[in-house]
Amino acid sequence: MFHNLKSQSSIATWTVTEAALYVMTAVAKNILPEESHIVPEVVQSILSLPESTHIAVRYTGIQLIGELSEWIDLHPQFLDPVLQFLLSGLQHQKLSTITANSLQNICQICRDKMTGHFQGLLHIVQSMDSFHLSNDAALGLLKGSALILGRMPNEKVTEGFKELCLVQVNPLNEVLGQSVENKPKQGSDSDPTIWLDRLAAIFRHTNPTVVNGQIHPCQTVIHELWPVLSSTCTRYQADVRIIERCCRCIRFAVRCVGKGSSMLLQPLVTQMISIYQQHKHSCFLYLGSILVDEYGKESGCQQGLLDMTESFLGPTFKLLEKTNGLRNHPDTVDDLFRLCLRFIQRAPAVFLQSSMVKPMLCCAIAACSLDHRDANASVMKFLSELVSSANKKDAKEKPDLYRNVVEVILQEHGQFLVQALLHACVFSLPNYMAADATEVIYELMLVNRENLSKWLEHSLQTLPTESTGGAITATHKQLTDFHKDVTSAKDCKQVTHAFRDLTRLYR
To answer: Could you tell me which of 69, 72, 71, 62 has the C-alpha nearest to residue 100?
Structure first.
């Protein structure tokens, strides 16, 4: 393609040139990074394009450079001229967004070789809003800068991290300083979500190497930023769009420093509970699951996290108990069961011995037939983990602690659970969602096959034998064969196949 282009370079129109570059862009990632004959000529030709070149040719050339990032990584002699070329592209309004995207690719792939260019990237970030970038391109540029920052020595990470964050925090502080009567206009500089999303991108992609016992280099900066994030939550607590982005930002801040965010745990949880009592934003349930995931194994944090979860349950159950509450609030269902699932995974003994187990199981039974994919998946995963915890061992507890607790719960609610799962699979859930429900059935069988057999037999008796038109749905023999297939199954796949065959009789 390139040779053909060279052979007619004197007569080729810009459309021919752009088309050739476009084709090369489409296959660039399939080129071996070791190639050293054609690609150097292509790259050099693009870097030599004069400013008078048609804008479409320059656009596609910049795009091709970004697609060749793996090749550039193995040919570092081209890195400096490529960066200079992209810097000039940033200053052109019609090229700035594609240039930022290509620069992100270079940063992501060549991050180990880009550490010496971090200050230059920081200057670009500080001037980012003058380049007319799209929001996605700006986030990509911050992602690339953060990835490079994570490869730098830890003593330099703190300073660089702080400078990157301050570029976003200062305008966020200006927004917070405005009158409460000034409603933020979505997409404008007064919209706090712009700055929250940018902070989240920095938190998410700054991953320095931290050895055990070493203080995370980003820890002090995040502690300094907490009052701003807290004030944002308080100021916009009634605005679900902004509060969701704020929770997302805090989530990545916690993930960034891990256990290093422990000093924020108490004030954060207190604020989450306070706002949730009034506004019931499900994003706080999700953020709670992140905290349990990070701190659930820490014995000193378990009681506080348990109290947090119990504080969420009251308002949540009131919301879900309303008419069509489960169907109208699938995000809340999803995040609630994700939170409790994390507790079972991180601190099973604490959760199983708490007062939350029975009400959560009853709520799960009611939600079995909810046909929202994500919400139902979280419900079924919670049930599966709850039941399978009977077969877990905990060296710190009595060997049969989990089994005893689970068996007591199932003795009271097992029949209702199996019936709810059966009716959900037969009448409510699409086939692709039924597999999660059959996994719960299989876990129940692993705990006590005899009990499962008895519960399933009683549940089958609740199925109608005739359709509304009077036609026979399933014969006694078909139901008997189904019961036998399930209770004799050697793996979960066999249970799934049996349920699929039964479902066909009723649809």
So the answer is: 62
Mind listing the pLDDT tens digit for each residue in 376-389?
A: 999 999 999 999 99
**Bridge partners (DSSP) listed for residue 472:** 466
Q: pTM of the predicted model, to two decimals?
A: 0.90
> Is residue 406 within 8 Å of residue 352, measured between CB atoms?
yes
pLDDT tens by residue, 33-90: 888 888 998 899 899 888 888 999 999 999 999 999 999 999 999 999 999 999 888 8
Distances (CA, A) of 437 to 280, 337, 379: 28, 15, 9
Confidence at residue 197, expressed as pLDDT on a 0 to 100 scale? 96
pLDDT above 70 covers a percentage of the chain that reads: 95
For residues 133 and 121, the answer to whether their CB atoms sit within 8 Å is no
d(C-alpha 295, C-alpha 293), whole Å:
6
Vertex 192, ends 191 and 194: CA angle to 5°?
Answer: 80
End-to-end CA distance of the chain: give it in Å, rounded.
57
> Rounded to an integer, what distance in angstroms lies between the CA atom of residue 472 and that of residue 386?
37
For 146-179, give the DSSP string: HHHHTTS-HHHHHHHHHHHHHHHHHHHHHHHTS-
Q: What are phi and psi of 8, to 5 degrees?
A: -120, 25
